[in-house]
Amino acid sequence: MFMLDIDLKEAVREIKERNAKSVLLQIPEGLKLHITGIVDELSKTGAEIFVSMDPCYGACDLAIDKMKALNADLLIHLGHAPIHRPKNVVHIPIYDRVNEETYQKLLKEIKKELTKQKFKTIGLCTHSQFLYLLDRLKNDIEGMGFKVLIGNGSQRIAEKGQVLGCNYTVISSIEQSIDAVLYYGEGYFHPIGIVFTVKKPVLFADTSRQMIVDLTKERDKYQRKRFAAIARAKEAQRFGILISTKTGQRYKMVAEHCKKLIEQNGKKAFLFTMDLVREDYLAGVDVDCFVNTACPRLEGPSILAAEELPR
Fold first, then answer.
1. What is the pLDDT at residue 301?
2. 170 and 255 assigned to the same domain
3. 172 plus 192 within the same structural domain
4. Fewer beta carbons within 10 angstroms: which end of the chain, N or C?
5. At 19, which CATH number?
6. Cα-based torsion angle of the residue sequence 78, 83, 88, 91 in order, rounded to the nearest 10 degrees
7. 289-308 pLDDT tens trace
């Protein structure tokens, strides 16, 4: 159904042009099966290749500290479009190449759902692995009689139509001009984020199952969970505010602002820093509620997102 397309030629070129003698490779979890083959290819440059085996959550999670600890000359980050470009970091894209049969089948499902719901103008978006398909999708959907808009995002967004788990500005920027959102890709993490961001209907074109999922009705369920967390937080007296030290998730000023708000309301707040923010790492800490200023992937019954903090 899918074939991974990794541009190792670009990585090899960067290593040679930068005359890198040692390289740290950062790779998504799903590609660890291919690590040894990738290292074999990059080693042909003569550079020593180190592989970071820690989980990688996106372009916000660059292993810069590990690169410095190893005294490596270059960090090669596979699979995510850049949200910022530190020196000596090279981003190499990975694309999921969809075969023609799969593409056409899902395209028919898209037409059926848009027709059924009588949507005329849609906002199209995806994550980095399918960015190469957006222009073709736009043309094909417009060829079926619909209007398609692809929005520009904030400075953190590398490409038109690209969504991040923490940034949906490519959709919010065009929300007033569309009838619905169409997210093309895999997994629920990104499309559920869109549900929280916009008020328009959200359709998920699931490339794995080759079907369309209308997530609009999920909005109430997830909002109820969010409001329940806020209600519980209002009863808390002691808050732990979480700050990630990851390069693209480090919001110290936001955390300090949250602490100030909490203390202004006569409650106690503590600042906790960590690299990988996980609920099980927080077990035993004597607070009533945690406020997360890092990646929204973190969920849990005692954890509140920073923007949900009671005012």
1. 41
2. no
3. yes
4. C
5. 3.40.50.11840
6. 20
7. 999 888 766 554 445 555 45
Helix (H, G, I), strand (E, B) or coil at 184: strand
Contacts of 63 (CB under 8 A, 6+ apart): 24, 26, 52, 54, 56, 75, 77
Place of tokens 């899902």: 106
Question: Which residues face 137 on adjacent strands?
Answer: none
Res 86: pLDDT: 83
Let me know whether 210 and 149 are in one domain.
Answer: yes
Beta strand 289-292 with 89-92 is: unpaired
Q: Is residue 59 part of a domain?
A: yes
Quote the CA–CA distance of 151 and 170 in Å, as a whole number: 4
Domain that holds residue 91: 2-97
Return d(Cα 272, Cα 270) in angstroms, integer. Answer: 6
Q: Which residues pair with 185 in a beta bridge?
A: 206
Report pTM. 0.80
Q: Which residues contact 239 (CB under 8 A, 6 or more apart)?
A: 233, 258, 259, 262, 267, 268, 269, 270, 287, 288, 289, 290, 291
Q: What is the CATH number of the domain that holds 237?
A: 3.40.50.11860
Mean pLDDT computed over every residue of the chain: 88
Kindly report the backbone phi and psi dihedral angles of residue 204, in degrees, each rounded to the nearest multiple of 5, phi listed first.
-110, 110
Q: What is the per-residue pLDDT across 234-253, written as a single tens digit (0 to 9) for each?
A: 889 999 999 988 877 888 99
pLDDT at 304: 52
Number of domains in the chain: 3
Same domain, 110 and 176: yes
